[in-house]
Amino acid sequence: MARIISIDYGLKRVGLAVSDPLQIIATGLDTVATKDIFDYLKNYFETEAVECMVVGEPMHLDGNPAQIAPQIETFINKIKKLYPDLKIARQDERFTSFEAKQAILQSGAKKKKRQDKGLVDKISAVIILQNYMESQRTF
């Protein structure tokens, strides 16, 4: 099986997570400057088989799209053009930043580490991916 990669897209940074080849466990991969994401993905796809990209879909509590939605749509459209065979899925990412901050706090990380926004983005991508994989499992 190929991996699944997830994206927590932001205007400054993109958090990335990836599944293991059996698509059981989500692991933080990296945090990349948004301007560098396409180069990063190109290099990653050259070395790893990826069958699906899960993109976090930010929404307000009432279910309406967040302000960043048009930029995410532009990102997804470019990915579709560059990688037409790659499955693209969207996953609700409400509360993932909060959950990521809680996980970092509970891990006992020092204050400086807890304030690392890149770490929060990467952990958010892990949560997005884990939620997606759990939603796809058939028991």
Describe the structure.
By secondary structure, the protein is α/β, with parallel strands linked by helices. The protein has one domain: YqgF/RNase H-like domain (Nucleotidyltransferase, domain 5, 2-Layer Sandwich), CATH 3.30.420.140. A 5-stranded mixed sheet has the order 3-2-1-4-5, with helices on both faces. α3 packs across α5. The radius of gyration is 14 Å and the shape is globular.
Distance between the termini: 19 Å
Query: What is the tally of helical segments?
Result: 5
Q: How is the quaternary structure best described? A: single chain
Number of strands: 5
Shape: globular
Could you report the average pLDDT, rounded to the nearest whole number? Answer: 88
Count of domains = 1
CATH superfamily: YqgF/RNase H-like domain
Task: Classify the beta-strand content into a percent band.
Answer: 25-35%
Largest sheet composition: 5 strands, mixed
CATH topology, by name, is: Nucleotidyltransferase, domain 5
- Fraction of residues in H or I helices: 40-55%
Low-confidence stretches: none
Radius of gyration: 14 Å
Query: What is the CATH class name?
Result: Alpha Beta
Return the string of H and E elements: EEEHEHEHHH
Structural class, judged by helices and strands?
Answer: alpha/beta
Task: Outline the secondary-structure elements.
Layout: E1 3-9, E2 13-19, E3 26-33, H1 37-47, E4 50-57, H2 69-82, E5 87-92, H3 96-106, H4 111-114, H5 117-136
Helix pairs in contact: 3-5
